[in-house]
Amino acid sequence: MMVIELARFRIHDGAEEEFLAERPGMIAALRRRFPGCLAAFLTREDDGGWLDVIVWRDAEAAEESAQLITTVPECAAWLRHIADSSGIRHVSVADSWVAERLVVAG
Questions:
Q1: 20 vs 102, more confident
Q2: Contact 5, 62 (CB under 8 A)
Q3: Separation between Cα atoms, residue 88 and residue 51, nearest integer Å
Q4: What predicted TM-score, i.e. pTM, was given to this entire model?
Q5: Is residue 77 a contact partner of residue 30, using CB atoms and an 8 Å limit?
Q6: Distance of CA 5 to the CA centre of its chain
Q7: Cα–Cα–Cα angle for 15, 16, 17, nearest 5°?
Q8: Residue 7 to residues 37, 97, 100, Cα–Cα distance (Å)
Q9: What does the DSSP assignment read for 4-62?
Q10: Which site from 2, 5, 22, 83 is most exposed, i.e. has the minimal number of CB atoms within 10 Å?
């Protein structure tokens, strides 16, 4: 069963440009190391915080990544931008619908 990872956090003041610039390389490294990663969406909340939403093939893939994420150099480097984290949670997908052609700006 697919799992969605939700990670809410704030980044250090002045880090946004680097944080966003390093994101594509971090996601590419994450996908190489953890092939169960199906999609990733970085969102900005109204209060200035961030919510990272990652879709995983199953709970095992999500848990493996959560345990080993800092062993991937690009991921560890990207995480340095996080000033305050509310932690991560994993939720199981009970039902889903995806547009035939999902186009996301990136």
A1: 20
A2: yes
A3: 10
A4: 0.90
A5: no
A6: 7
A7: 100
A8: 15, 22, 27
A9: EEEEEEEE-TT-HHHHHHHHHHHHHHHHHH-TTEEEEEEEE-TTS-EEEEEEESSHHHH
A10: 83
Q: What is the pLDDT of residue 99?
A: 84
- Domain range annotation of the chain: 3-92
Q: In this structure, what DSSP letter does residue 58 have?
A: S
Query: How many whole angstroms from its chain centre is CA 59?
Result: 15
Q: What is the pLDDT of residue 103?
A: 66
Residue 93: pLDDT band (50, 70, 90) is very high
Please write down the long-range contacts of 21-24, taking CB distance under 8 Å and 24 or more positions apart: 22/74, 22/77, 22/78, 22/81, 23/78
Taking only the tens place, the pLDDT of each residue in 43-58 is: 999 999 999 999 999 9
